[in-house]
Amino acid sequence: MREALPIIQPIPEAWLAPGAHPLEVDFGCHRGSFLLAVAEGVPERNFLGVERQSSRVDRCNAGIARHCLGNALAVRGEGASGLEVLPQASVAVLHISFPDPWPKRRHAGRRLISSEFLAGAARVLGPHGSLRLMTDSADYFSSMRRLTADAWCEDERNDGIVRPPTTFEKTFLRLGVAPLRLTLRLR
Ligand SMILES: C[S@@+](CC[C@H](N)C(=O)[O-])C[C@H]1O[C@@H](n2cnc3c(N)ncnc32)[C@H](O)[C@@H]1O
Fold first, then answer.
1. Which of 50, 126, 176, 181 falls between 20 and 30 A from 15, CA-CA?
2. Is the CATH number of domain 22-186 3.40.1280.10?
3. Residue 49: which of 9, 4, 3, 2 has the closest Cα?
4. Using an 8 Å Cβ cutoff, are 24 and 38 in contact?
5. Are 134 and 171 in contact (CB under 8 A)?
6. What are 27-38's pLDDT values in tens digits?
7. pTM of the model
8. Which ligand 1 atom is at minimum distance from the Cα of 96?
9. Is 52 touching ligand 1 by the criterion CB < 6 Å?
């Protein structure tokens, strides 16, 4: 299998400095429709999109520039290595919405949500962060539950922020498919 892409574009230092606005990461941000909408609606937070396809990263950043959003940025990154540039406990919310389901059993090892990725998520979120997972795949959802059963628990806190639906969420809702959601924090 080919190597995962490291993030090469720097994240603004001010976003990681003490006292910075809370940082939310949208991992697998696609063309940025959620990223742009949430950044526009919640100016008191910073939003980082991570995406493995560079054409999509460019498209996100073009939209961010068009909307003059100083609190959003997309970077190229892939899998667990895409979290490595983020310091420990630097992320308030990590969103992973509709990660590719890889439904064939022989491809399950390609899924984003793995023990390795969750170890990275635990590091960047720290004890106060929130991990928000959403999928339409019942099988992937079971696997997410299994992999998070020991170290994570349901996060019942409500930060009061109303976040817009993602592109895939809108599509599934239009088709009458309710997304399966897990909102977790470390135990
Ligand atoms: C099915 S789309 C979901 C897009 C968006 N999150 C939504 O809910 O509308 C999955 C996205 O994740 C990206 N992706 C898939 N595997 C990835 C990985 N290992 N690392 C980073 N991005 C990934 C894909 O390129 C695609 O843009």
1. 181
2. no
3. 9
4. yes
5. no
6. 999 999 999 999
7. 0.96
8. 6
9. yes
Euclidean distance between CA atoms 81 and 88, whole angstroms: 14
End-to-end Cα, the chain, rounded Å: 33
The catalytic site residues sit at 100
Length of the chain: 187
Cα of 28 from ligand 1 centre, angstroms:
3
Asked whether 32 lines ligand 1 (CB < 6 A), one says no
Q: Tell whether ligand 1 has an atom less than 6 A from the beta carbon of residue 28.
A: yes
**165 is written with which tokens?**
């639906």
Q: Which of 112, 113, 132, 140 has most ligand 1 atoms within 8 Å of its beta carbon, as the pocket-test mutant?
A: 112
Report d(CA 159, CA 154) in Å as an integer. Answer: 14
What pLDDT was estimated at residue 85?
Answer: 87
CA dihedral 36, 41, 44, 48 (to 10 degrees): -20
Does the Cβ of 111 fall within 6 Å of ligand 1? Answer: no
Mutate-to-test residue for ligand 1 from 84, 98, 110, highest number of ligand atoms within 8 A of CB: 98
∠ Cα 139 145 147 (to 5°)? 100
